[in-house]
Every structure is written in structure tokens, then in C-alpha cells.
Amino acid sequence: MRHLRSLTVIASTTLAVGVLAGCSGESEKGLTYEDSPLSKYMSSLYDAEMSPEDQQADMEAQELEQEEAVASCMQEEGFEYVPYTGTSVIAGDDDAWDPDSRDWVEKYGYGIFSSPWDDEEAVDEEMPEDPNQEYVDSLSESERMAYESTLYGETPSDEQAEDPEFDWNSLDQGCYGTAMNETQNMSEIDALYEEFDPLMTKMSELYEAALASDDMVELDAEWAACMADTEFTEFAARAEAEASMYEEQEKLYEEQNAVSEEIDWDSASAEEAEELMNASDPMSTPEWAEAADKERALALADFDCRAEIDYDATSLSIQFELEEQFIADNKADLEAFRAAAEQVM
Fold first, then answer.
1. pLDDT score for 66
2. Using an 8 Å Cβ cutoff, are 66 and 181 in contact?
3. Range list of H helices, the chain
């Protein structure tokens, strides 16, 4: 059985500073999520001063190191493997991802059901050819399965995949997982977050408190009053609007997964499996297209109402005030986290 991975809203601690303002760029008052008082502590996890060009060069160097480690691991297991490089691209291209532009929102909505990167042909043209494909194609089916298992590691059982308490690190991670741990300090990063889990929990609770604060409730009420003049009158808070589209997408993936469970994947050839996956792909359904239309209309109404009441700047101001108090209450722990993160990164 195979499942497409469903897309859910996951607000990580390092990105949560943009949640209240809808991950906007610069507001009318000049505030951006990069002005977050907490960013000076969380930026220890990355080089905030590095240019996009230097970031790209750094990523390519990491990719080469990782792929060479993968090749060494695969060869030790008796398989051929040539480092596959040139696939890493810095995410967040400002020219492509621009949710602060009304024209962009009119075309892509929130970027959930459609995005600038949906043109698969364009993406394929930019991707280099996998130097291992010819070798993989030459393997028998049993050899290919052994190759993929060695490369990618264990696949969890259905029961494990559905268990929220399941320890994914208990699975064999394959040569890719081993290489990532060796070259990207994954174990050290995991240990860092485990050590500072109480602080991370407090930080998550901070953003939950910001959303529930009296000032935010008042701001959301003003936003909802504006939205009452549109066709979208069911939302009491701005965050609910965008979340509703993720929920619709989740339902479509769940329906696709239900179809997948009825398919005998073990007896299907690779070609048959690809055809079955394409046939059940929710992105090719009329429901997906309808949801994309709805998303664009909703996001545009949301965009206009936020602009009308200067929602983004106000919400950031509320958030940053709470962050300043959080820093005052937890300064020693934050300084310790920053020092530890600098050692790991």
C-alpha cells in the first residue's frame, strides 16, 4: 500500500514569527517578521547574514558531501552509486513566492492548491538527469527492491505510520539517512531540541497566547467585520481562513489514500503502480480545481481586508510586544540555547 503524503499546516518554532501576519513580508508600517525580537536567538540555527548566492553555494557543497557519503555507503553494500548533485535550490525565491502582491494572490491564493512551482515541465527541465537511473533500470525487480531499501531504508508499517508516538528513528534510515546524520549534524540538532524542549514548548505557547490575546481578538473581529461584506462570512479569525483551505486539501488526500488502500500494490508492476498513482492523484480531479478557485477568491478577500485595516503591522506589533516580555522572562535559557546552537551549526 502506498500513500501520498498529505499536506498539513506545521508551524515550526523557527518560522512561527510569521504566523500572526500571515507570513507577510513588509507591512504598511514597515514591520516584517524579520524584525522579531526573538529572531536574534533563533537565527543561530542559520546564517541570517549570508547572501542568497552564498547560501546556494553552501547548500551545493553540503549536497556534494552528502552524496559522496551516500555513494561510499552504497558501494560498501555492493551497489553502484554515482553522486547525484545539482538538485539543491534555495527555497523562497522572492521572484516566485510573493504573497504580499495582490496580483500574486489573485493567481495563487495562499499557494496551497496552486503555486509558482506547479509547472512540472519547467521543473524537470531544470533538474539534472539522475546518473544512477540507467544502472537502476538494469536491475531485476528483486535487485531493485534491495537497492531502494539499502538507499532509502525501512518503510514503516501502516500501524507504525499511524502511531503518533512511533519513534521514526528506530527504523533503518538507509544510506541516505546515514549520510544526512554524518554530514548535517542531524543527531546533534535533534539533541539540541531535546535539551531545550521546555523552552521550545514555551515558545510555541507564546504564539498561541498571542493569537488568543485580547488585542488579537479585537483585531480579528475588525477583520471579520470586513469579511462580512464578502461571500466568506464564516470565519471569526484570519488564521481560520487559510487553515480552512489546508483542511480541504487534507480531505482530498485522505480520499486518495482510501482509494490506495484498495489497490494490491504488491502485485502491480512499476509501470502499473505509476499509472494507478496518476489515476488516483487528487490534483487531477475537478474537486481540486474547484478548491483552487475557492482558495484564490478567499485569499484575495482576505488580502484586501488585511490591507484595509493594516492587519499585518498591527498583529506583528502585538506579537513583538509579547516576545519582548518572553525574552525578559526567559533570557538565561535563550542565551544558553543560542550558545549551544552556535556550537552545533
1. 94
2. no
3. 39-42, 52-76, 102-108, 120-126, 133-138, 141-152, 158-161, 174-183, 186-195, 197-212, 214-227, 238-261, 270-279, 286-309, 311-344
Distances (CA, A) of 195 to 169, 187, 330: 17, 12, 15
DSSP assignment letter at 176? H
The pLDDT score that the predictor gives to residue 17 is: 44
> Does residue 70 contact residue 147 with C-beta atoms inside 8 Å?
no
Give the chain's end-to-end CA distance (angstroms, integer). 38
Q: Residue 219: its pLDDT value, please?
A: 97
Residues of the chain falling short of pLDDT 50: 1-19, 23-24, 28, 92, 122-124
Q: pLDDT digits over 77-105, tens only?
A: 999 999 998 877 665 455 688 999 999 99
Three-state SS for 194? helix
Report the candidate in 297, 291, 301 with the shortest Cα–Cα distance to residue 247: 291
Q: How far is CA 27 from its chain centroid? A: 23
